[in-house]
Fold this sequence. Notes:
10 strands; globular; three-stranded antiparallel β-sheet; alpha/beta
Amino acid sequence: MKIEIHPDADAISLRAASWISKLAGRAIHNRGRFVAALSGGRTPLQTFRILADAPVEWRRVHIAQVDERVAPLGDPDRNLTHLHDALLRRIALPSARIHRMPVDAANLSAAAAGYVRVLEKVAGTPPIFDLVQLGLGPDGHTASLVPGDPALDVENADVALTEPYHGRSRMTLTFRAINRARRILWLVTGEDKQEALADLVRGDPSLPATRVRREGVLLLADRAAAALLEPSP
């Protein structure tokens, strides 16, 4: 895992957008497409706004979701709502290349299985993302893989459903799908993440986030989040 500590969230956003743009360019050059799974939360939104103005060949990009709350389309609780405002509405990306988690389906179990089939069509069987972008919760969760949830131990599927967490059930990529990605990007900001980030870097096995692999990983943190990390030699 490569760790970079930047002064603040603005600096992280600039670095992340530049890094994603270059990664997309390499993937498009090598494989003809760039398939990214993006997370929700506040931290990545500024990155997405900057990325919208980056020189990305959007017509060769596919965007999927890392996780989503079970809520109606357009609900402010939906990650998609904020992803749309920050990025999707501002780029020339055909709607067929935006792969929304179908959390408004009547049969969520069938919808989760169907989402895997969608991912297979764009990222292969099994699906291999060029990028999975993750955040870190103060409780050590990532995606919607939260402490104590049965979805943590799903090993035979790439998409799982969770029990209610902060009032909403979720649909989420599993560790199996996340760890298969070619590259993983963590974006971690804020002093409320200090303990979780220190535990993640130390490899505390009690944290769900620690189950994410460390090879091919870039972690960008601001100084507030990284306050408890030991200085590098």
